[in-house]
Write a structure and sequence with these properties.
7 strands, single chain, 5-stranded mixed β-sheet, 32% strand, 4 helices
Length: 120
């Protein structure tokens, strides 16, 4: 499955690992899990791991946009971890579309990303 979702810190931190190319159906798994955690914990801190990620199919890009609009204020911090130059650019691009504090980390700095998410 191109999207794997794991909870850490009692569900207040969400680790989303994406790989390959996302399709619309992948959001059928992500969205309910994300919304369940918001109902339980309120705002979340998210680590979005893009290792081996190759982008979206057109229908998945639309689902991603709808997800972003609906959950504009539900993420407190967003650590984007990647290994490609375009992924760093994506972190900069998404800042106006969320209230979250967004920061990009190189794949080698994944531990630093987790530490940053846990800071007060």
């Amino acid at each position: 499955m191109p999207i794997q979702v794991n909870e850490e810190n009692g569900g207040q931190r969400l680790i989303i690992h994406v790989s390959g190319k996302l399709e619309k159906a992948d959001y059928e798994h992500l969205v309910p899990e994300f919304e369940r955690l918001i109902r339980q914990h309120g705002k979340l801190r998210v680590l979005f791991d893009m290792s081996d990620f190759h982008g979206w199919e057109a229908s998945a890009a639309w689902e991603d946009f709808k997800f972003g609009v609906k959950h504009f204020g539900d993420i407190e911090r967003l650590a984007m971890v990647g290994e490609e130059r375009w992924q760093h650019g994506m972190a900069i691009f998404c800042k106006p579309f969320t209230k979250a504090t967004v920061r990009y980390f190189d794949h080698a700095d994944g531990d630093e990303a987790r530490k940053w998410l846990g800071e007060v």
